[in-house]
Amino acid sequence: MSDDAVDPRNRLNELTGREWVYALRSVISTRYPTKGAESFAHDLRRLHPSPKPPQLLAELVRFFTRRDGHVLDPFAGVGGTLLACALEGRTAVGVDLSSDYAAIYAAVCERLTLAPQPYIVGDARGLAGFPEVTAQPFDLILTDPPYAAMMARTKTGERKKRGQSAATPFTASPDDLGNLGYQEFLGALRHVIAGALAYLRPRGHLVLFTKDLQPTPEHHNMLHADITAALRELPGLEFRGYRIWHDQSLNLYPFGYPYAFVANQQHQFILIFRHLP
Ligand SMILES: C[S@@+](CC[C@H](N)C(=O)[O-])C[C@H]1O[C@@H](n2cnc3c(N)ncnc32)[C@H](O)[C@@H]1O
User: How many CB atoms lie within 10 A of CB 78?
Assistant: First the structure.
């Protein structure tokens, strides 16, 4: 392996050997600026309950596509994936139920003087009905679906004590996967991904963010494990493993103190699948 050259056999990306190895670190630990030019208009994007940093998504885009690659995000929010693609010279199509998030994405593009990528306001369970989605195959599906009903729940315990108890659902729509029960959510997500796979090229990747819920006596609630199991049922989708995103900007709460262990969630899982139809 030559550290500083792109291997001529490499069809996946344009990384040198050294860059490839760096991109394999299992934990990505970040603290991105939330002010100034390096924040990529965080003041606008934070109107969404969980915007993803474009810089983080850009790292994944660079690994899983080549320049001019084409990327689908069926849960686009305020456009973390779409912004990353614009920054990295890739094209993308975003879908989200919310016209409010579409408008914020448009305002972010205007502020950053980036050309907006096609953004469809619609239900990701109907991808086949969107000509922008069906027009040409995607190299990558990079997405961050709701975390079952985590955001739609009123917060309890330490957050409640600090006056941060309000639920922050993405939308009020019954079509929002974030408003579904746990098992219903898993079925709906599998349905969306099955639909999206029809437009993912062979050997293309699905890269999906998720985080776990607190366990209950009834279930471990390791959503990353349940999503992996649900998506492995889809023919032609091979689970390749995961990376962890450690978001150092999140508060550490004294959950459970001084009685019992309650986990903090300062990390998310980045689940990686390959399409081998
Ligand atoms: C975790 S957020 C995505 C955030 C995004 N990565 C960003 O950077 O802004 C999940 C998104 O899924 C959207 N959503 C939920 N159900 C949907 C559905 N059925 N079709 C399309 N979008 C949906 C929500 O409106 C929400 O914006």
Answer: 27
Per-residue pLDDT, averaged over 10-36, amounts to: 97
Q: Is residue 28 part of a domain?
A: no
234-270: pLDDT as tens digits = 999 999 999 999 999 999 999 999 999 999 999 999 9
Ligand 1 centroid to 17 CA: how many Å? 35
Task: Return the best residue to mutate from 127, 177, 245 for the ligand 1 pocket (most ligand atoms within 8 A of CB).
Answer: 177
For the domain that residue 259 is a member of, what is the CATH number? 3.40.50.150
Q: Is residue 1 part of a domain?
A: no
Owning domain of residue 61: 33-275
pTM, 2 dp: 0.96
Bridge partners, residue 12, by sequence: none
Contact 219, 2 (CB under 8 A): no
User: Does 5 fall in a domain?
Assistant: no
157-180 b/e with 16+ CB inside 10 Å = b? ebeeeeeeeeeebbbeeeebbbbb
Number of domains observed in the structure of the chain: 1
By residue count, the chain amounts to: 277
Using most ligand atoms within 8 A of CB, pick from 45, 97, 150 the residue to mutate for ligand 1. 97
Instruction: Render 134-180 in DSSP notation, one character per residue.
Output: HSS-EEEEEE----TTGGGSPP-HHHHHTT------S-S-TT-GGGS
In whole angstroms, what separates CA 256 from the centre of its chain? 29
